[in-house]
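Just curious. Invent one:
>
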Amino acid sequence: MAFEYGSRTADKFVVRLPDGMRDEVAKAADADDRSMNSLIVKAIREYLGLQQRQQALLGALVLANQMQAQQEQQP
């Protein structure tokens, strides 16, 4: 398995999972042929990417709404 970073130099963070979630993560990682760590990193990256896309879309909607309001005010 290829790593995008050196595991010995990577930041480390302890995560406390609710009862039973570790087994769920292990099964999902095994099904995707990756480590639990890799699966969790992938999930976090996807979540953060989704948040960025949502903010970009929200910004575009606000801008479009402002432009529409300006056009409606023009004679």
Notes: The chain has one domain: 21-73. The radius of gyration is 21 Å. Helices lie at 21-31, 36-73. Residues 21-73 form one domain.
